[in-house]
Specification:
The protein is α+β, with helices and mostly antiparallel strands and 269 residues long. It is built from five helices and six strands; from the N terminus they run E-E-E-E-E-E-H-H-H-H-H. The protein folds into two domains: 79 residues, no CATH class; 114 residues. The strands form three sheets. A two-stranded antiparallel sheet has the order 1-4. Strands 2-3 form a two-stranded antiparallel sheet. A two-stranded antiparallel ribbon has the order 5-6. Helix 2 packs across helix 3, helix 2 packs across helix 4 and helix 3 runs antiparallel to helix 4.
Length: 269
């Protein structure tokens, strides 16, 4: 009571790069409407993060001196000149002149720009926007982990397949070096070795050994015409022994034929 309060203003001066810490100054203007001896007591409440509780600060009484009052008016007498026809002077009544009492200038309002968004003193990690933004990299990390696991499984299956083909090729080559194998077994295993080695040579394409024929193997290893003919003959002999059950020739394979077949297979690189 007895005071005219103007709209307050505030200023924030940050002391870090993100604006989480700084100094905020509040200003307000008070104008007394009557004679006062001191300023009114002010109270300010805030949350102290160190004490983890709300704290209220109160100001002390500050003495002031109020001066001023209503401006006094003056009557100004306007003199009248004496008539030239009369011998004496007759005093005239002074016409009162009303002095316009000028209104003293009032204190101007403090113009402050209101921020578009309301500022908050809450830490950034307690805001929903902060955790909402963290979801994006979290989802990306989960997707990357799933992709890596799936990729590792695919590579593991591919490695197991290649290892199995190498093992099969080594075992077949060991069998081809035996001397007691029948022609049917020998040519079947020889053609199988060619198919397995072709699949290993084209591991990037993932060729199934069961669908490899003589032309596919010849193209994979880039054989010349003579080697192509020998490879076709090998597959033909394997088919004859496999499907007909008989062969127009000796019941055993000669050492020369064994040597030619082994030489052909070992040169497939």
């Amino acid at each position: 009571r007895g005071w005219h309060k103007y709209p307050p203003s505030s200023k924030f001066k940050q002391d870090d790069e993100v604006g989480l810490s700084g100094t905020k100054t509040f200003e307000t203007v008070l104008s007394p409407n009557e004679k006062k001896q001191s300023l009114p007591l002010l109270a300010f409440s805030y949350f102290d993060p160190v004490k983890e509780q709300y704290v209220t600060l109160r100001s002390e009484a500050m003495p002031i001196t109020v001066q001023g009052g209503t401006a006094a008016t003056q009557n100004v007498a306007t003199p009248q000149p004496a008539s030239s026809r009369t011998s004496g002077t007759t005093p005239t009544r002074a016409a009162p002149a009303a002095a316009a009492a000028a209104k003293p200038p009032d204190i101007l309002y403090q113009f402050t720009e209101r921020p578009r968004a309301t500022e908050s003193f809450a830490p950034i990690y307690k805001r929903r926007v902060f955790w909402g933004v963290q979801v994006i990299p979290l989802l990306a990390l989960i997707g990357f982990a799933v992709w890596k696991i799936r990729r590792a499984r695919i590579n593991n299956r591919q490695a197991q397949r290649i290892a199995a083909l190498h093992h099969e090729a080594a075992e077949l080559m060991h069998n081809l070096r035996r001397k007691d194998a029948s022609p049917r077994e020998y040519y079947a295993e020889a053609s199988r070795v060619v198919r397995v080695k072709t699949a290993l040579a084209s591991a990037g394409r993932g060729i199934d050994p069961n669908i490899v024929d003589a032309e596919t193997a010849a193209d994979t290893f880039k054989l010349n015409s003579d080697e192509r003919d020998r490879l076709r003959r090998l597959f033909e002999q394997s088919d004859e022994w496999q499907y007909s059950g008989a062969h127009n020739g000796p019941g055993r394979i000669s050492p020369e034929n064994r040597r030619e077949v082994l030489e052909l297979i070992e040169n497939l690189k």
